[in-house]
């Protein structure tokens, strides 16, 4: 079996986890702040809040920015449902902006058009959530300019993108956003089993997120309504959650961070080799903006189905039969029944629809070998047992 993505765990990762298991704290110990520090330092951000998932981080990021009933949040339809669900958790309305035809990220042109209309109708979003699909940054400079013009906040869903860069800055720097969120699910670039993190340069936003991660409780006298009753004292001042990550996971995260650059380098050499193998074939390989350095979480190709003379589903079948677990990232969010009920129409998202009819994610992860890559490309073209091209 060749999955589309998988974790890479070595002996140092295992040793890191074992050492926490033998220590005093399994959770709420020293490894969580160490993990937050190593990630925020890597990204050049002042603050970070680690959570038990990126979904949780997106939720508390929305709450920290005051997203509430009556507010509107916009994101890309070509993402995992969590990018949109976070707004609904807060009671807000969600809407989608169509994607760019080359990068498949939220289109800055469509965003600009939609904002102009929204302003006329008094329906401007409070937050826009650009998603860095496959690890390539969105056009953050343009989106940031629009945020200044129309007065919305930006949360980067950088779940795919730790280790990537934009305009020479690490993704997650929050140079063009209020908050950036990473995921550490095993298929992502680095893993903690489950886990996520919200980064920001705002002490205030980070303070709120730290509190919301743990029931809305504070232990800082300055944040309390009156002086502490005693040494035992704490106050719940917001309605928070238990979104804490464990020290076991945070130690794994620190160990994985030390391997991040090596992972991304490996992913680049895999992508480069696919680019060569696929060069003259009827597929569109991933377009890269000149100011972007992708983490290559995914390697997405667009199939020229007419030239291949095959249906989208038949290609999936062919791969599955060869034991290659290709995937489609993603089903446009508005197509899910839960969202369809809200009245979204696929006619409003022509680029997303066209993408959905042709896209496929082929395997990419650090351990993937050149031989396996050749086998993947061969399986794209010929059913098992037919002639080989290499
Ligand atoms: C994986 C993913 C998430 C959710 O991450 P979890 O850590 O599993 O909660 C959110 N957004 C995108 C774009 C993702 O790929």
From TrEMBL:
| GO biological process terms on file | polysaccharide biosynthetic process
Q: Does the keyword ATP-binding apply?
A: no
Q: What domain of life is recorded for the organism?
A: Bacteria
EC? 2.6.1.92
Residues with the modification N6-(pyridoxal phosphate)lysine, per the entry, are 188
Which terms does the record give in the GO molecular function aspect? pyridoxal phosphate binding; transaminase activity
Q: What CDD domains would the database entry show? A: AHBA_syn
Q: Which UniProt keywords apply?
A: Aminotransferase, Pyridoxal phosphate, Transferase
Record has Transferase as a keyword: yes
Residue numbers annotated as active site? 188
Q: Which NCBIfam families match?
A: PseC
What does the sequence similarity comment in the record state about its family? Belongs to the DegT/DnrJ/EryC1 family.
User: What is the recorded name of this protein?
Assistant: UDP-4-amino-4, 6-dideoxy-N-acetyl-beta-L-altrosamine transaminase
State the organism of origin.
Answer: Leptospira kanakyensis
